């Protein structure tokens, strides 16, 4: 049985019956219809690989013009459809014309079953090859930014990190959904990638989707894909991130920012393990490993009715909570030296030492931006340093951020603390959103959403 779906279009009932009885023994699905006017509906409701198209439909017609017209129409929908034309009138010139217009072969009626099977079998291999090439092209376009980035390994010897590493080793080989919790900059994406790298899906794609920077109007088209003509600028069929991540891992970052309607749409996809592209009505099966992350208190949001409890149950088979950097102080100098080596190499500088005084300064700092802030501080210090070592002056750390909890408000409310940090960053940079976002480890879009959320 060949894993391909065949559509047969002919105005002769006997031809349709004969084709269906024979082809269904060899192909996954055989769909038949009498009129090519049904093509649009059939292609939008079925996953078709090969189209067997008659060339004449009007009584007495034999010139094949109708077949050529419908061939062009099919290929205008998707140029990768594999179309085989068939006719009762042998005409070499017509066959050549059909091949030039995009048909892959030409069959005379009545056919020999062995010849028909051989032709369709070859066409099926061509279709699968085209689909693989197209998918690889889409993947390359969608993840070139992620591929360009070199992911860091998990670095640390502190008790919290050792515990997380032990958990990761147990969880990674499974397909369990994982929810990663932690403040901004604690390394949630790094842990997500490590889960993928140690999973059985490691040879397939790791797809990172930042839901925090994704416009709500683009949510469905980006994640689920769209069909040609689904909206004004939809000039071609496009698979969404879930389809592109098939057999791999999809990492949905900042899931706490999703609105309730979008949470419902995501839940439907996770429950059914299928996606439906915008502008289509057919379901497409997906096989992905789901990892999500957020810095928001999802359990509190469930209690307030701003996050769906059924979605939380679906995404958190296993929870990993990453500690803020000030709670793993013994890892600070390890991380600093790692970044020192990385950025010294990147900027072609011979800097191989952090002075003792600079090291003590790093240990005394509170690190509200966590590992990401430490990374930025060391990178900046490498750029600004004049000698072959990093000094306290090179670090340029804000004096307001020393002394641990003394610089923080007396509250354990995460939203209040987040509001304070956003407000402070904007004040520190005199309203410069780009710089404030960089200090907080956020995108400009994510910072604007928090400004709106907190009414700042």
TrEMBL record:
Q: Where is the Response regulatory domain?
A: 5-124
Please provide the record's keywords in A-Z order: Activator, ATP-binding, DNA-binding, Nucleotide-binding, Phosphoprotein, Transcription, Transcription regulation
One family from Pfam that matches here is: Response_reg
Annotated Sigma-54 factor interaction domain residues: 154-383
PANTHER family recorded: ALGINATE BIOSYNTHESIS TRANSCRIPTIONAL REGULATORY PROTEIN ALGB, TRANSCRIPTIONAL REGULATORY PROTEIN
Q: Which Gene3D superfamilies match?
A: 1.10.8.60, 3.40.50.2300, Homeodomain-like, P-loop containing nucleotide triphosphate hydrolases
Q: Which InterPro entries match?
A: AAA+_ATPase, AAA_lid_NorR, CheY-like_superfamily, Homeodomain-like_sf, HTH_Fis, P-loop_NTPase, Sig_transdc_resp-reg_receiver, Sigma_54_int
Q: What is the species of this protein? A: Pedobacter lusitanus
Q: Which residues carry this modification: 4-aspartylphosphate?
A: 54
CDD domains from the UniProt entry: AAA
**Any GO MF annotation of the entry:** sequence-specific DNA binding
Report any one BP term from Gene Ontology.
regulation of DNA-templated transcription
This chain belongs to the protein called ATPase AAA
